[in-house]
Amino acid sequence: xxxxxxxxxxxxxxxxxxxxxxxxxxxxxxxxxxxxxxxxxxxxxxxxxxxxxxxxxxxxxxxxxxxxxxxxxxxxxxxxxxxxxxxxxxxxxxxxxxxxxxxxxxxxxxxxxxxxxxxxxxxxxxxxxxxxxxxxxxxxxxxxxxxxxxxxxxxxxxxxxxxxxxxxxxxxxxxxxxxxxxxxxxxxxxxxxxxxxxxxxxx
Length: 203
Hints:
Layout: E1 13-27, H1 34-41, E2 45-48, E3 53-57, E4 71-78, E5 81-90, E6 93-104, E7 107-118, E8 121-134, E9 142-144, E10 147-149, E11 151-160, E12 165-177, E13 186-192
Antiparallel strand pairs: 1-2, 1-8, 2-3, 3-4, 4-5, 5-6, 6-7, 7-8, 9-10, 11-12, 12-13
């Protein structure tokens, strides 16, 4: 493809999940509902911002734990290819999605891996989907106290519980746009960065 012919949308822009969708389960119980995944990705919304962050919001008809969504993360762009990685954690559950989106005019293509870990069970699914460019006006990046929304920060946590103290635990702090019909202007989430060599202390 001639790179000069690629028409990339201006930032920020939104991509909308279509019904052209395929799943391949790579790990986990094959009986887990594909229908739930279909509702999650059909009508989903991807928003890409100029500061190399993105937000993935499932369809509003999906029956999902709102404490785990939306998923936010970062991306790197090379010509018309967006390589992305994002995750969100709450309590003992974590969801993540990473992969590539290929922008080709009005239609884009998603090739990604969706992972859901909850209560010790792990589900890994390969997702292939056609996305459409959403031409409705996308709100520009807003700021609160000079902090751009969305933003992702690497932080360290220190503190103590009734029986333990901890310090310098690497974590992320995310300031994101409000999800769906939330009346709040933005939302804040944080979570530890898992490391196999470290025992994670949960509340």
